[in-house]
Amino acid sequence: MGKIFAERTPVDEAIRQISRSEISRVGKESVEIFQACGRILAEDVIAKWDVPHFDRSAMDGYAVRAEDTFGASPTNPVILRLVGEVDIGEKPCCIERGKAVRVSTGSALPEGANAVVMLEYAKEIEGSVEIYRSVTPWENVSKRGEDVRMGEVVLRKGEILQPQDVGVLASLGYSEVEVIRRPKVAVIATGNELIEVGMNPEVGRVVNSNSPMLCCAIREMGCEPVYMGIVEDEFGKLRDAVSKALSTDAVIVTGGTSVGKRDLVPEVVEEMGEIIFHGVSMKPGMPTGFGVIEGKPVLLLPGFPVACILAFYTFFPEILAKLTGVRVVAKRGEKVRARLSRRIPSQPGVRTFARVVVRNGIASPVRTSGSGILTSMVKANGIVVVPEEKEGFEEGELVEVTLIRDLVEVL
Amino acid sequence: MGKIFAERTPVDEAIRQISRSEISRVGKESVEIFQACGRILAEDVIAKWDVPHFDRSAMDGYAVRAEDTFGASPTNPVILRLVGEVDIGEKPCCIERGKAVRVSTGSALPEGANAVVMLEYAKEIEGSVEIYRSVTPWENVSKRGEDVRMGEVVLRKGEILQPQDVGVLASLGYSEVEVIRRPKVAVIATGNELIEVGMNPEVGRVVNSNSPMLCCAIREMGCEPVYMGIVEDEFGKLRDAVSKALSTDAVIVTGGTSVGKRDLVPEVVEEMGEIIFHGVSMKPGMPTGFGVIEGKPVLLLPGFPVACILAFYTFFPEILAKLTGVRVVAKRGEKVRARLSRRIPSQPGVRTFARVVVRNGIASPVRTSGSGILTSMVKANGIVVVPEEKEGFEEGELVEVTLIRDLVEVL
Predict the structure, then answer these.
(1) Whose CA is closest to B318, among B329, B307, B327, B309?
(2) Which CATH number among 2.102.10.10, 2.60.40.10, 2.170.190.11, 2.130.10.10 corresponds to the domain B56-142?
(3) CATH architecture of B29-51+146-180
(4) pLDDT at residue A3, as a whole number
(5) Which residues of B touch A333 (CB under 8 A)?
(6) What pairing do the DSSP bridges indicate for beta strands A99-103 and A78-86?
(7) What is the largest CA-CA distance in chain B?
(8) Contact residues, B window 2-41, toward A, CB-based 8 Å cutoff
């Protein structure tokens, strides 16, 4: 074993070796969307219907046939008969030539209508409505399918579901969704000095603190920790414990990874499978090792607690990427700097939150009109905040973008 | 209501108004440490015993009486009788004058011994050991209580438990810990156009997508969402729903917060308690409102989904701070820049992870010797990574610090 330690692997090379190793992917499962946040999409999500799924008024006003309003002006208004109202949520009736129906933002457009005259350009007078301005066909209307067409892919396999995605899934008729199963990660602690959590140590013994620490870190990374208890520094017992742990998706052993007489874990892994590296050029964390047994990754972490947790955070993310097929490159909430592809306007005194798509250092503001609600929520990956004292940001300006979704690379 | 909207509250002032409002704190509960990560400590954690709780060898070598080694040198070695070995985890015997015992790093020191001679300065010869270098009393020994004294406060009330804290809790004999209960947050959706998740909408209706979105966001923030369903835009029904929701710790209503005839939620809250603000200078999100009923915070979010989620992330963190008594000022994983209070050395070719305490723009490296393991884990709040090509960072150098714990402000 001394020989192996003589050649310590650089950290980046060790990560590359993990990424090149043959590791079995975990399968998928179905979860309710209320529980789906943070989970990885296992399949493309397609729209079950058009969005909007009916022609919808984008303004408070009057649904009309656009043709009826042509030529209308304040001095020469068109007068239409007011034949009713479509409230939000109501199923509309229909209108004919010369008629109008009162609508609100979000109301379904009556059959026969093809435009909405805004409230401010009309006046109700005794069962009729005076129209002061003409509208073109489909003006102030969000047309059926304008945002998303039935059958269109709205979220791609590999995306990590954010709260806004869950909203979009609900809008599209999903109550459940297929996601990657949470990898099960076994945690074995080895060391003759260790006693279980909650016990009082005699002289010479210490509490196994690495296992609860790792179980918490594993759970935080979206996996399911499986605590396998403490195993003595004895070849056969270690082999049995690792063998049992192979029923999970990945195995972590803490302790016994150095080059002393009690450091048997690398030999156990070598016998059962293959050691990929053992000994890394990092401090603390040098005795870290990694192997593969029957397609299952086995991470060997030092017993020294600081080294243990640092090496975990250094190498486990790549193991997780191999298990799930998705590598996280940036986390929601991270801030990046990018150049604006076009101006973001803002009123002075108002804090404006502009959705942008940031890619290769360029932030492109996304359409924020009512009709693009759903797609803008899944396409935007960042927010640019324009503070109250500014009238916006200029094209080409360097701005701070806060990511509103995890950025991923699908393997 | 139009009057209220005429005076829109600036975002920062609205947050201040939340922070000044009278909101009931949630209580505490006991959780197993394996499940404690991310939870807020409800009480100071004190050490149940000294750490280390026995005099411990800090090196592989020979436990001796320091006095016996005085004057030893390579040319004039001291010869001690080797009377045994203390393995890691074993209860040690004792030694007398002129004797030595083989020990490993982490072994308990035999009674009578007060120092450890490192392996490289000694040689075993036929039942004896030649010592080539003198040691001073307690050299290469981590003394009992050197890191932490029994009864000392190790983690303070209000800290958010990180994986490393869980390790420390285990080391100190805790298997459970008192934490702030997860706040229960009720989610009510209002709007006559809404139908439940999973149903197929008729013309005019849309799926209630804000509720699953908010429930996910609430859960991600460490709270327990309680979905209360869809309520019609009707004063009495809204009042009944809010009243029922007051059995939780906080209430969120989405929709019905604007100034139209169906926007009844602000009036309902005003009747049952007090509206603190309604109408905020933000875009989107302007119709956001906030009130308090019987000490329970009530957040009124716009029905427009983008505005809904943005306003949630803008105002809910301060509500959560009021409920728990702890305001998060920075999250683990965030990067900050700071000046080093002293040099961090590193070997070329090795990636060094140095623990630091960062405060007011100054990063102070913490003691990383074996004896300070436990305290260094809870005192450090950041890591500075020295890359392979550098021989360290100099005192006064500006470095990037990655936070390894959430930074909090206890209210």
Answers:
(1) B327
(2) 2.170.190.11
(3) Alpha-Beta Complex (3.90)
(4) 41
(5) 331, 334
(6) parallel
(7) 100
(8) 10-11, 33-34, 36-38
DSSP calls for A185-239: EEEEEE-TTEE-TTPPPPTT-EE--HHHHHHHHHHHTT-EEEEEEEE-S-HHHHH
Q: What are phi and psi of B5, to 5 degrees?
A: -70, -25
Residue A112 burial (CB count, 10 A): 16
Hey, what amino acid is at A47?
A
Contacts of residue B302, defined as CB under 8 A and 6 or more positions apart, other chains included, come to: B254, B255, B257, B258, B284, B285, B286, B287, B288, B308, B311
ipTM above 0.90, yes or no: yes
Alpha carbon B20 to chain centroid, angstroms: 25
What are residue B290's DSSP bridge partners? B277, B299
Q: Which of B7, B126, B115 is nearest to B65 (CA)?
A: B115
pLDDT at A369: 64
> Over 70: is that where the pLDDT of B371 sits?
no
Q: Is A70 on the interface with B (CB under 8 A)?
A: no
Q: What is the spatial distance between Cα B273 and Cα B325, in angstroms, rounded to a whole number?
A: 22
pTM for the model = 0.94
Query: Rounded to an integer, what distance in angstroms lies between the CA atom of residue A319 and that of residue A313?
Result: 11
Q: Strand, helix or coil at B208?
A: coil
**What is the per-residue pLDDT across B127-177, written as a single tens digit (0 to 9) for each?**
999 999 999 999 999 999 988 899 999 999 999 999 999 999 999 999 999
